[in-house]
Amino acid sequence: MSVFETVTGPNATFQSIILVLKFPFLYGHTCHMINVNLFLILQSLFFGYIKSCIPNLTYLHNTKQQVLLKLLHSVTPTQKEHNHFQEKLNMFSVKELVESNCTSSVPSNYVCLKTPEDSILYDETDNIPTIDFSQLTSSNPDERSNAIHQLGDACRDWGFFMLINHGVSETLREKVLREGESFFDLSQEEKMEYAGEKILDPIRYGTSFNLMVDKTFFWRDYLKCLVHPHFNAPSKPPALRETLEEYSRKGKGVVEELLKGISLSLGLEENYIHKRMDVEMGCQVLVINYYPPCPKPELVMGLPAHTDHGILTLLMHNELGGLQIQHKGNWIPVNPLPNSFLFNTGDHMEILTNGRYKSVVHRAVVNTKATRISVGTAHGPNLDTIVGPAPELVGDDNPAAYRAIKYRDYILLQQNNELDRKTCLDRIRI
Ligand SMILES: O=C(O)CCC(=O)C(=O)O
């Protein structure tokens, strides 16, 4: 049966369920089919019974049937959409695409429209702030207070900084990158075991950003794992789980110290953000991005301009650059210091601080030479925490600029919509 063949009745419902099992990412569309079909069956039974009692209802029955059939037809895509979807199914991985395609071209559905401004880069890498973690955690009050001050400036002026002397060993960082990359070397069948459709699935392998909403595909495959409050990771390759668990735990420790410094830099009590966002049970999502080499990198995007939904994102990548951040309207390529971590403030930092610390727009570009791997860990509030601007940071001359929203709902809002260069914050701005 073709994916979009229009069938009705119990047979269609059964086939729809089979489809979901075969192609979990069709879930949304198929659920709709199942719902419509179940509804048709139920209403047929209902009207069948009533009709036998009151013959005059036949007309009403037929009319309703037509409307429902139209509804069903309205989810049947055009031929163009059908072809588009078939392509999605065939190209479920950009790694597979690169490895199976010996040509030097890029499929048209990966070509991103770029404005001239998109291509201009300003080399201000030297100015990206560097924070020394050993000073931030120093027992010397002057040293610590100086580092807190620098951290506050970095969050306010850049929303982005490099962290040195963080205490996470280079050996562990390299292991994460190496073993993370080896996940993508598993067979497509093994990886597809983790191809979840739902945004908050504990482990999710995929490609692009969100296949169900992307109009253009992005040149990346990814593996996302919810690593806190409950740790989840694939069981293959064998060493990956243990490595990611250690890395996530250490990363969380670093973030918790940074959040203390950030709270103090805002004039708040040291544990303010920790308590307010329930970081103890906070949602930590680790994403391994796999960007294979591309024959025409100027035509595609690894990840388009976006902001992160959490409070703070910790990022590192292999030896290949590709991260660019937006600063005062300019795109700046980032070349981190050796052994440093990159950090950026996310949307929930901007919401909580009522805009004092901005969530930074960034993107990832790809190259012709080799595969770029990056590992981002988003640290956010507890999924059920409702976050709005901190009352301490709101006043008559600085009214609340964002509506309070549950973190879970915010993630769904962001991830179920196309990354269209706008920050998701625009959706909750007052
Ligand atoms: O690959 C990178 O450097 C950036 C990744 C990123 O922005 C993300 O995972 O949200």
From TrEMBL:
<feature type="domain" description="Fe2OG dioxygenase">
    <location>
        <begin position="281"/>
        <end position="381"/>
    </location>
</feature>
<keyword id="KW-0560">Oxidoreductase</keyword>
<dbReference type="GO" id="GO:0016491">
    <property type="term" value="F:oxidoreductase activity"/>
</dbReference>
<dbReference type="InterPro" id="IPR050295">
    <property type="entry name" value="Plant_2OG-oxidoreductases"/>
</dbReference>
<dbReference type="InterPro" id="IPR027443">
    <property type="entry name" value="IPNS-like_sf"/>
</dbReference>
<dbReference type="Pfam" id="PF14226">
    <property type="entry name" value="DIOX_N"/>
</dbReference>
<keyword id="KW-0479">Metal-binding</keyword>
<keyword id="KW-0539">Nucleus</keyword>
<dbReference type="GO" id="GO:0005737">
    <property type="term" value="C:cytoplasm"/>
</dbReference>
<keyword id="KW-0963">Cytoplasm</keyword>
<keyword id="KW-0847">Vitamin C</keyword>
<keyword id="KW-0408">Iron</keyword>
<comment type="similarity">
    <text>Belongs to the iron/ascorbate-dependent oxidoreductase family.</text>
</comment>
<dbReference type="Pfam" id="PF03171">
    <property type="entry name" value="2OG-FeII_Oxy"/>
</dbReference>
<comment type="function">
    <text>Involved in the regulation of shoot development and salicylic acid (SA) homeostasis.</text>
</comment>
<dbReference type="InterPro" id="IPR044861">
    <property type="entry name" value="IPNS-like_FE2OG_OXY"/>
</dbReference>
<dbReference type="GO" id="GO:0046872">
    <property type="term" value="F:metal ion binding"/>
</dbReference>
<dbReference type="GO" id="GO:0031418">
    <property type="term" value="F:L-ascorbic acid binding"/>
</dbReference>
<protein>
    <recommendedName>
        <fullName>Fe2OG dioxygenase domain-containing protein</fullName>
    </recommendedName>
</protein>
<dbReference type="GO" id="GO:0005634">
    <property type="term" value="C:nucleus"/>
</dbReference>
<dbReference type="InterPro" id="IPR005123">
    <property type="entry name" value="Oxoglu/Fe-dep_dioxygenase_dom"/>
</dbReference>
<dbReference type="InterPro" id="IPR026992">
    <property type="entry name" value="DIOX_N"/>
</dbReference>
